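Sequence, please.
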């Protein structure tokens, strides 16, 4: 099979990311053969290998789609530093795409950028929006509450917030309601205390 034909067929999947098995089924070839074809396409820059068995059409992939592409079938959504910048709460552009997930926490380096995944309890996996089939992104309030939730984590990555500016649309009430859904009493108390201080300083009590 010609590489140009394989690439054209892969575009017919209608998705920016796919697995080796997806490609094998579409191209009607064995998995081992699909891997060879995909590796050759990666060498020419037509596809990008994100992780073992998972690929992307690099010219079509939104960076915010990377987290869920890497954790699938386990869900994830963009949050933390990335969501805070996306919603205009912080100015600094994060070097990585930060996401909350039900998968294990880890940093993943891909040719399209680094993805920083951070696990939360299943009961706390909510508070995101999705437009059509696009990437899931935390609302502004959940992005901040997620950051505070992970403050006590061993990585210490979320101990200190960067300079924060809450937009007029930011709802302190909504943020508190989200924080109150934290099951751990000690973690809930910690987050609410931090959140109240932030809201008071921003005049949003």
């Amino acid at each position: 099979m010609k590489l140009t034909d394989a690439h054209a067929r892969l575009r017919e999947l209608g998705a920016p990311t796919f697995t080796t098995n997806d490609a094998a089924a579409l191209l009607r070839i064995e998995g081992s053969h699909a891997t060879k074809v995909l590796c050759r396409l990666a060498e020419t820059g037509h596809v990008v290998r994100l992780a073992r068995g998972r690929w992307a059409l690099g010219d079509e992939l939104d960076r915010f789609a990377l987290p869920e592409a890497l954790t699938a079938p386990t869900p994830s959504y963009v949050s933390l530093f990335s969501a805070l910048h996306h919603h205009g709460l912080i100015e600094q552009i994060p070097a990585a795409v930060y996401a909350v997930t039900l998968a294990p926490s880890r940093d993943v380096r891909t040719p399209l950028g680094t993805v920083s995944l951070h696990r939360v309890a299943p009961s706390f996996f909510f508070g995101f929006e999705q437009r059509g089939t696009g990437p899931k992104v935390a609302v502004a309030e959940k992005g901040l509450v997620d950051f505070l939730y992970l403050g006590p984590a061993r990585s210490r990555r979320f101990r200190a917030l960067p300079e924060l500016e809450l937009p007029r649309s930011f709802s302190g009430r909504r943020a508190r309601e989200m924080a109150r859904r934290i099951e751990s009493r000690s973690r809930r108390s910690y987050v609410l205390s931090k959140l109240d201080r932030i809201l008071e300083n921003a005049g949003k009590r």
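The first helix runs from residue 3 to 11.
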